[in-house]
Amino acid sequence: MIEAYLKKRQSVLETLKAELEKLPAGDYVLELGCGHGHFLSALAQRDQEKGITRNYAGVDKKSDRLRRGKKKSDRTGIEIHWIKADTGDLLQLWPAAGGNKKIKEVFVLFPDPWPKLKQQKHRFVNAGFFWALAKIVERGTRFYFRSDHQGYCTAVRELLERSTDWQTDDNAPWPQEMPTTVFEGYHSVYENIAAKRK
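The chain above was modelled as a monomer; its predicted structure follows.
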């Protein structure tokens, strides 16, 4: 059983690595846990209208969500790379800082808060996340987090304040005039947290 699991894991990692290697060079916006792709598709369309050229990648573990995202981007004709992956695997396999695929902005919008104390180990935005992300981005890369769960927001702020790699930036502008995400529509009150790589 363990051997079968390890073989499957190796296959998953090799497939993801090959997919990342095929991505075009350039500057990237990542949305981790992209859901149905509403936000990223709208952001890409707004950028196109403003003449901004960059690459977009939406990452999620659920194939159905990625298919819905692809339908949205196909309708606009804007290329967005929809990647099925665990966030930890993606951060592990993305080229290191200084490579030709440069992450400039990272969005995490309404991740599962895992509110119970015994569940919080499942939160993917944690100390290990910020450490791994710091390894693959350059100075000035911006990180954006949004959640309606106060406890999660507090934990993220504390992690950023203790980090030697990241600095909170409450004055950082968020993309304006964006349609709400599916999850955002469920929550009338939420908190934004922005930070940048030192």
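The two ends are 44 Å apart (CA to CA).
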